From TrEMBL:
SUPFAM superfamilies: SpoIIaa-like. GO terms for molecular function: anti-sigma factor antagonist activity. This is Anti-sigma factor antagonist. Residues 15-122 form the STAS domain. InterPro entries: Anti-sigma_ant (IPR003658), STAS_dom (IPR002645), STAS_dom_sf (IPR036513). Coiled coil: none annotated.
Length: 124
C-alpha cells in the first residue's frame, strides 16, 4: 500500500507534524519545539492518529530541537492511552533521545534510533 501523507502546522507555535500511514502504521513526523506551549498540539495529533485505529503509531522526533518535560509527559500519557495499540518513538540525538534516557521515559515508551529499527520492532 502506498503511503498517505498530510501535513498540519500547529500555528505560530513552532511545531510541525506530518502524518503518513504505511502498512497500517501511522507515522507522525514532528519538527520544531515540543514544550509547554506546543505539547497539547502534539497530544492532539497523536489522539487523531489513534482515532483512525492504526496497527501502531510511530512518533518521529528526528527534527525536534527541544523536547521539554511537558513533551515527555505527553509521550507517556499517549503511550498509556494508546493500549492495546503499540506506540513507539524514533529519536536519536541530544535534544530528543537524551532527555528520554536521562528521565527513564525510554523504559515506558519504546525508543528506537531510526525509523527502520522502529518499524522492524513493530514486526516482531
Amino acid at each position: 500500500m502506498a503511503p498517505m501523507a498530510s501535513k498540519r502546522r500547529s500555528g505560530a507555535s513552532g511545531l510541525d507534524v506530518s502524518t503518513s500511514t504505511t502498512d497500517g502504521v501511522a507515522i507522525l513526523s514532528v519538527s520544531g519545539t515540543v514544550d509547554l506551549l506546543t505539547a497539547p498540539d502534539l497530544a492532539r495529533h497523536i489522539e487523531t492518529a489513534l482515532a483512525e485505529a492504526p496497527r501502531a503509531v510511530v512518533v518521529r522526533l528526528d527534527d525536534v530541537d527541544l523536547l521539554a518535560s511537558s513533551g515527555l509527559r505527553v509521550l507517556i500519557q499517549a503511550h498509556r492511552s494508546a493500549e492495546p495499540t503499540r506506540m513507539i518513538v524514533v529519536a536519536d540525538g541530544p535534544a530528543t533521545s537524551r532527555p528520554m534516557e536521562i528521565t527513564g521515559v525510554h523504559r515506558i515508551v519504546p525508543l528506537y534510533p531510526t525509523l527502520d529499527d522502529g518499524l522492524a520492532a513493530l514486526q516482531e
